[in-house]
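Backbone shape codes
____________________
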Amino acid sequence: MSVDVVILGLGYVGLPLAQEATRSGLRVLGFDINSAIVDSLNAGRSHVDDLSDADIATMVAAGFRATTDEAEIASAATAVICVPTPLSEDGGPDLGAVRGAVGSVARNLRPGMLVVLESTTYPGTTDEVVRPMLEKAAGLVAGVDFHLAFSPERIDPGNKEFGAHNTPKVVGGHTPGCTERAAEFYGRFVETVVRTKGTREAEMAKLLENTYRHINIALVNEMAKFCHQLGIDLWDVIRAASSKPFGFQAFYPGPGVGGHCIPIDPNYLSHNVRAKLGYPFRFVELAQEINATMPAYVARRAQNLLNDAGKATNGASVLLLGVTYKPNIADRRESPATPLAQRLHGLGAKVSYHDPYVSSWEVPGVDVLRAEDAETAVAEADLVILVQNHRDYDVQRLAGLAKKFFDTRGATTGEDAHRL
């Protein structure tokens, strides 16, 4: 049986895309090499934050199905690749999963098919890596025998306002015809489609978005350090600056940056500039340097707070509240809580954590205990650090219960807490 689209990679990007396409009435097939994920989805169970078991059950009832059989890719009019691209050891993207997915598509490519890469990567990947693999394996020519495009994912886990349907979709094709074919496909279930001149512009657009955030977060993180030394309340500064109705967008300091987009994606661009042009992208490299120091800075501030209370860090009990990279989700990818826990452990602290979304948390080299009850754990700890401000936390009450409360998210007011 033919399907309208096969989505390769059923994670936090691919699954919401599959949901929206299914809602629009498209016949959707999901492909993943992880049989446990495939079996779970076919049984109506979700493994990502933004979709519930009921959401998956609704998709299955509407015809969605997942498979590990790559031969079924040949039944699709469109193939969308949504696999992860972690950093490789040399600082560029690890394209192993992309190459694997492209290989699966290439072995099943048919004339007239549309192939779209959504995985974040460096400019040129679609043309230099994906296209040659498809053309060589299938003996077909992109832009003539089949359509090829890049469309960056813009999924924001936990965002209740913007999802796959109402977030504008950027598309750039290998040829103008490829762009139009991709725009027509996404236009069936996305409100707004934004066309670019080609695949490289679409690839670069994604990196610009995240590099912009990366650099501005680094700006306020560095300001947080010297504002503390100068006795200036940076949170109040940002509040005041935000009153300007033009020319300013608020960014906030924190214990570090997490997730895939901010700490990872700009490095693809920096690596690509160095590799192809031979010089550094200094803004990105400086931002990375600043943001990467924040867990160590928070650990030093924690040490100072304990010293002020006449307590040595060695042997002190430190509770981390919230260990995910974003509030109100379970995703811990690149969370700054991990290097923070390691730094505190290195100072001799006994580290525990509480997080309503995380039932178990493994930190390399650190034996971290999970606290079952937040209020009890807060009252007992020598120092509490708010790492992530989940909606479940009444931070003002918790700060009042704590012996020492260090707020790295600017969520508290009053004298009960010390803020970053």
